[in-house]
């Protein structure tokens, strides 16, 4: 407790600088992880999943707008690690900062809850926080590349689409997982340790086999995803979806499995379609199941309180009944 009080007693500028550096480091590390899984499509380098957008949106949802400078600094560090700071780099940093902030503002406007305990929260995160807000980062980033002659105008739509989907997948796959970790409990729900370990083992073994199989059997991932979401909601669905997406991206980068005979464009399209449907299924199915469980618990709680109230009324009424008292004298 004394340590917590001591941290809170630090001057606000020191706390702000510390938070900014921490957010920027998290953003930079996520960026380097995303860049490690690059693909080449028609001569352009793309990232099918861009984790920094998920990190940025999660930090803003949890800690507010004070994280925006850290996001900008992290984006600048990622861009600086790839190329010398120029006008195009400034535009990319600006777009990557404004897009998560707009996602936060839109999600706040519709009453988004970080618990993701309602279907409307999952839908809002997908369609507002991911698909809509990330139009800004992709549009500004690719637009700046074209304006500064870093990218041919004919390649605009292809690179924009890949950029947009990669940013959106970062929000869909990474943000829910970070929000879940922020409020994680030490024990899994209902203590289903055995089932959780069994599910993890099956996923870890079967997913690489499916993704590297020469036969196109990627659909076999969905039964595992449904099992994880039905039994463990976000705690099971989102890690399963993220792991399957990463393994599929690795297979696509290695031109292995069902991606071996495809062109670069076909590989990108197939991979992004698979990752997108996987992330949407995991997030929305988990949100639906969580909402149903919470509704059932609320009904059970209301019924229990009603029974207690009726028992209390009956007890009070029975206490007032009995033989009439005899008068004195």
From TrEMBL:
It holds the Pfam family MASE1. It comes from the Bacteria. InterPro entries: MASE1 (IPR007895). The keyword Transmembrane applies. Keywords: Cell membrane, Membrane, Transmembrane, Transmembrane helix. Residues 21-292 form the MASE1 domain. The keyword Signal does not apply. The chain crosses the membrane at residues 14-35, 55-82, 88-110, 122-145, 157-181, 193-226, 232-252. Its main location: membrane. GO terms for cellular component: plasma membrane. It is a multi-pass membrane protein. It is found in: Cell membrane. This is MASE1 domain-containing protein. It comes from Streptomyces pactum.
């Amino acid at each position: 407790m004394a340590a917590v009080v001591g941290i809170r007693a630090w001057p606000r500028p020191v706390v702000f600088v510390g938070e900014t550096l921490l957010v920027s480091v998290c953003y930079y590390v996520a960026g380097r992880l995303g860049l490690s899984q690059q693909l080449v499509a028609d001569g352009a380098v793309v990232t099918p999943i861009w984790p920094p957008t998920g990190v940025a949106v999660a930090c803003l949802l949890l800690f507010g707008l004070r994280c925006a400078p850290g996001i900008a600094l992290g984006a600048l560090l990622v861009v600086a690690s790839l190329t010398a700071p120029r006008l195009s780099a400034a535009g990319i940093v600006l777009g990557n900062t404004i897009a998560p902030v707009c996602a936060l503002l839109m999600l706040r406007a519709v009453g988004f809850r970080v618990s993701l305990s309602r279907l409307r929260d999952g839908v809002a995160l997908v369609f507002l926080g991911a698909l809509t807000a990330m139009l800004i980062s992709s549009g500004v980033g690719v637009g700046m590349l074209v304006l500064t002659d870093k990218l041919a105008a004919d390649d605009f739509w292809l690179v924009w689409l890949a950029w947009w989907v990669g940013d959106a997948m970062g929000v869909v796959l990474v943000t829910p997982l970070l929000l879940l970790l922020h409020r994680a409990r030490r024990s899994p729900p209902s203590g289903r340790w055995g089932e959780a370990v069994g599910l993890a083992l099956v996923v870890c073994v079967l997913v690489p086999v499916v993704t590297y199989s020469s036969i196109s059997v990627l659909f076999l991932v969905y039964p595992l995803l449904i099992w994880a979401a039905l039994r463990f909601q976000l705690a099971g669905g989102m890690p399963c979806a993220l792991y399957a997406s990463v393994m599929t991206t690795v297979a696509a980068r290695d031109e292995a499995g069902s991606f071996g005979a495809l062109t670069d464009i076909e590989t990108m399209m197939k991979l992004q379609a698979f990752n997108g449907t996987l992330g949407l299924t995991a997030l929305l199915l988990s949100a639906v199941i969580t909402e149903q469980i919470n509704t059932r618990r609320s009904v059970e709680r209301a019924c229990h309180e009603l029974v207690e109230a009726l028992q209390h009324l009956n007890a009070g009424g029975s206490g007032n009944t009995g033989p009439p008292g005899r008068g004195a004298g």
